Amino acid sequence: MRTENFTAFRGILRPPNGEGILPLSLPMNQIARLLPPANILLSLEASSKKRVFEQAGLLFENQHGIARGKVYDALFAREKLGTTGLGQGIAIPHGRIKGIKEAVGGFLRLATPVQFDSPDGKPVTLVFVLLVPEAATERHLQILSELAQMFSDSGFREQLTVAADAATIHSLFTNWQSDATSHRRTAV
Predict the structure, then answer these.
(1) pTM (2 decimals)?
(2) Which position among 94, 140, 170, 183 bears the catalytic label?
(3) Does the active-site annotation cover 64?
(4) pLDDT tens digits for range 12-45
(5) CA distance 183 to 127
């Protein structure tokens, strides 16, 4: 179907004559593809960065069959290279896992803030854990870039902080669009 003469507005296409409404299929952002709702944990109790990594290991072991030790070791090895704390209460620990075929993510909202050696010195409450295949390169960097864009949005961070449940958080990740993407899509 050709869409040049349609106007896009809030997820729908309207034909130029105004008759009928057609759904606008927008490609999901990369993060929505790798974050299943079961990988979202709220009010997670963890007293340190090490405990956060242990909890992430349990999450990926239970949901994806990835050995918790492999997850912990990969996250800890990356953290030794430099902090994955971004500032503003956000951290994106990530690691390469031998044997997985696709990137997978998990979102953890901590019950109490944990020090992550972030550049601004603030402790972290919002953690996105990213696991990628051992050979991942460009895709890994694209995902990290998209996560950085998401978390640089103060409104998005605030919504993640106050969201009542995992379904709401999943929806926030699924529906997030960068300003550049938004402008391209409304120009359809």
Answers:
(1) 0.81
(2) 94
(3) no
(4) 333 334 444 333 333 468 898 899 999 999 999 9
(5) 28
